[in-house]
Specification:
Length: about 300
């Protein structure tokens, strides 16, 4: 058996850190050879929300008088959970001026996202906005204005972001005009969960939230042919079993041997892919991957 060490020095310098090339000292005849991953050491440093994945935007409509103002929120590339997404929403509400402050000095925001542990779901709460400023409350200098009739903001989850939180593509919440006693029930409201007496409307995910769509990394090697895999170059799957920024150390108890394509080669090319077979951007290039090559007749 022969061991090949691939690390940061083998990374193709395109800023993605997801392609590694190992150059053999000489051209090698790899006829009747088998390849397996024997060890992986790398940091959990890939994001779940990115502009590349197009899953980084949501929007809401604020009504000021008779005007409808659409605010689009673009979440920066990063590894986000629901709590930190909600914190970023509040940051944007303050930037937009779409909030007001009560007599205790607490900011009141138009909607929030939170985890509903019991329902294994992401919950959206939208709040009824008044038509005038309540006594003792204050508003920021850039406050866009109150609606002509009390209502909730309309929240829209576009395609791709909806998968993160488990809602239907292009879901939009109800405006709940004047806290209507009749709640509409078309397909857009299949996520409706409940409404209380003061007009707070709650919605729940109707599919499992995919908070981290890239929970594993697929290893694709150009020099192999696995007829049972699509694509045929997939030889291994690495799971992110640690917290963000922590070191993943993976040593398979049994090697998964894959036959290499017969021929003479001067290099091996390894690509790191997301579960949907797209290149995945790895932020930390500090990694060590051991590949083992054996002859057909070698003992396992």
């Amino acid at each position: 058996m022969f061991v090949i060490v691939m690390n940061g020095t083998n990374i193709v310098q395109d800023g993605q850190n997801n392609k590694l090339v190992y150059k053999f000292p000489n051209s090698m005849n790899l006829t009747n050879k088998y390849l397996a991953v024997s060890s992986v050491s790398m940091y959990y440093s890939w994001f779940n929300i990115t502009a590349f994945e197009q899953n980084n935007t949501l929007s809401f409509v604020w009504v000021a008088g008779a005007s409808r103002i659409t605010y689009t929120i673009v979440i920066p590339d990063g590894l986000w959970d629901i709590a930190t997404i909600n914190q970023y929403l509040q940051f944007k509400f303050i930037e937009f001026g779409t909030y007001y402050t009560n007599t205790d000095g607490d900011n009141l925001y138009p909607f929030e996202l939170l985890i509903n542990v019991n329902r294994y779901a992401v919950q959206l709460n939208t709040y009824q906005l008044p038509t005038t400023l309540p006594a003792g409350y204050s508003i920021p200098t850039n406050f866009p204005g109150f609606p002509g009739a009390s209502q909730n903001v309309e929240v829209i989850f576009p395609s791709r972001f909806n998968d993160i939180i488990g809602y239907s593509a292009n879901f939009f919440s109800d405006v709940n005009l004047a806290n209507s006693t009749v709640f509409p029930t078309p397909s857009a409201y299949t996520n409706y969960a409940s409404k209380n007496s003061i007009g707070t409307v709650s919605y729940l995910s109707n599919t499992s939230p995919q908070i981290q769509p890239n929970s594993s990394i697929l290893f694709s090697v150009s020099n192999v042919n696995n007829p049972y895999a699509q694509p045929s170059s997939i030889i291994y799957s690495l799971n992110s079993s640690v917290g963000i920024g922590e070191l993943i150390v993976d040593k398979p108890p049994n090697y998964l041997w894959t036959k290499m394509i017969d021929g003479v080669y001067n290099e091996l090319r390894l690509a790191l892919l997301s579960p949907n077979l797209k290149p995945i951007s790895i932020n930390d290039p500090n990694m060590t991957i051991l590949l083992t090559i054996r002859d057909k007749d070698d003992l396992l």
